[in-house]
């Protein structure tokens, strides 16, 4: 029996998730909102009462600065966010959701819930908890 390589299996799963997110978003939205952009918007929805900066997204999603810069540029170009300077540090720009982004909130959150349901539909709660625990260990191993 062929032994599975965990890293490859995780990569394949990540690719499938990304493809699924992009497929759903292209059908549910009138704009070209990608899966990662949708996830960034969900994070911003959940943290509307806080000042969120590019660095926060880099840390929370564990992605490089250049990746976040590109995603934010697309979100800004499509009218979902604005980057606004703060009084206390001229180098910082906080990320603000626009009214257009707020219009998409319920639809986007529903679509993320659908994705979670699809991912976990044949799993018991104990299996999900164990998977989260193992993924956490793997992430710590790589940090």
From TrEMBL:
Signal peptide: none annotated. GO terms for molecular function: DNA binding; DNA-binding transcription factor activity. Keywords: DNA-binding, Transcription, Transcription regulation. Residues 1-140 form the HTH marR-type domain. InterPro entries: HTH_MarR-typ (IPR000835), WH-like_DNA-bd_sf (IPR036388), WH_DNA-bd_sf (IPR036390). It comes from Candidatus Erysipelatoclostridium merdavium. PANTHER family: TRANSCRIPTIONAL REGULATOR, MARR, TRANSCRIPTIONAL REPRESSOR OF EMRAB OPERON. Gene3D superfamilies: Winged helix-like DNA-binding domain superfamily/Winged helix DNA-binding domain. This is MarR family transcriptional regulator. The keyword Membrane does not apply.
